Amino acid sequence: MEPHDGHWLYSGTAASRLWEKSAIGLLNGNGGLVLSDAEVIFCMNHRGIDIPSDEWLPGRVHSNPSLLQEAAILEALRVPGNKIVLHNNLDAIGISHSGSWALRWTSNSHPSKDDPVAEVLWYFSKDSLEIQNKSSTLSDWDGSGELETLLRWSESVCNNGRIAEILVIDEEQSVVTYRIQEVDPRGKLEPPTARQLERIAQMPMDPLSWAGSFIATDDYWPSEAIGIPLHGGRQLDTIESQIFSSIVSDTEVEEGSVSSSVLLDLWNRGLNTRSGFKYGTTWRCYSGKIGEGHAPWLVVDPSREGPIDWAEACLSSRLASGVNKQWLYPIYDNGKWRYLEISRPPSDSRWSNPNRH
Predict the structure, then answer these.
(1) Taking a C-beta distance cutoff of 8 angstroms, is the pair 100, 121 a contact?
(2) How buried is 122 (Cβ within 10 angstroms: 0-12 exposed, 13-18 middle, 19+ buried)?
């Protein structure tokens, strides 16, 4: 093993076999195999190849403080049999990607003759997901941040016909796998018209102690999605009350709150919205009337909640999965709301470290 343009050149007898059987590294055309630091560690632990020297690992960790985490991610993917080609080798073998850390092939396929099934990014559990320049007002809203970047990345990956996979590693070097994708939640209710919303706004509303309001009658109520039936009337929550207050004051949505804008978008999608308090989100959404089925979606209010890091995102997604729901994060993009889902993959695609659970 010797240095080679920032990587390592292995010229042993197993070089060709490591590529042909496991798609490790990159053949250099002279019978040698070029390996990254993380691939050297994997080959040391799983392919019986010696590292260059006893001082090699401390020196490489000093140069790359993320090396041990990257090696753990690679191990989690490769031990089940996946073939992984790192991004620095993809151009050399003529495979395009979406700025991903690596591409993944299944155990029974190979980069030389098959298409990849997934593109991979990895994060440390404490990597931030907080929004930059967060504001409660839509006109001042700047929702840019890592989740917005991931929405665009997942869109590109999907356009390539691949799965967008995220691997997250914690301080204990334990790895978990998630998938991300844009979803388009749609319901069966008729969206409330502007005239119907104005009609509700003109009804007498009694303020409640926690900032919601109560309308004493629900005669000819136009939408099941708005308010909850209570004592012959309708109770509106804080965000619903804000919407009707803005209608009375003739305030445009663009000047209103982020919360109101998201809720109006959910109504316009035909969704029946209810409190997501029990599940740690602002809304749970049904596709039809209450009682006709469970609420498939849990939706975050990005102005008031949402994960600050990957540890919280993983927890939210796991909780949603545990109650058979999809956890959705709204992202405002070019004047409309788009919804990013972070989900647990099927049980046969949850890559994790051997002996670390």
Answers:
(1) yes
(2) buried
- The helices-and-strands tally (H runs, E runs) of the chain is 10, 18
The owner of tokens 């809720």 is 263
Residue 184 CB neighbours (<10 A):
7
Residue 144 and residue 152: Cα distance in Å, rounded? 11
Q: What 8-state DSSP symbol labels residue 282?
A: S
What is each CA distance from 112 to 101, 115, 145, 214, 329, in whole angstroms? 19, 9, 36, 66, 37
Fill in the DSSP letter of residue 278: G
Helix (H, G, I), strand (E, B) or coil at 66: coil
Q: What is the DSSP letter of 226?
A: S
Euclidean distance between CA atoms 341 and 326, whole angstroms: 7
Q: Is the pLDDT of residue 209 over 60?
A: yes
What is the C-alpha to C-alpha distance for residues 273 and 276, in angstroms, rounded to an integer?
A: 9
Q: What type of residue sits at position 255?
A: E
Strand partners, 105: 83
Order of strands across the sheet that contains 206-207: 206-207, 213-215, 233-236, 228-230
- Structure token pair of residue 109: 């396929």
Q: How confident is the model at residue 246 (pLDDT cuts 50, 70, 90)?
A: confident
Question: Do 101 and 87 touch, CB atoms closer than 8 A?
Answer: yes
CA torsion 196-200-201-205 (nearest 10°) is 180
* 230-240: pLDDT as tens digits: 998 999 999 99
DSSP 126-160: T-B-PPTT--SBGGG----SHHHHHHHHHHHHHHT
What is the 8-class DSSP label of residue 308? S
* Both tokens assigned to 95: 């495979």
Say if residues 317 and 343 touch (Cβ distance below 8 Å). yes
User: What does the DSSP 8-state code read for residue 50?
Assistant: P
Looking at 28-150, which runs of residues are DSSP E strands?
Answer: 33-35, 83-86, 102-105, 118-124
pTM for this model (two decimals): 0.90
Quote the CA–CA distance of 202 and 220 in Å, as a whole number: 14
Show Cβ contacts of residue 335 under 8 Å, excluding neighbours closer than 6 positions.
Answer: none
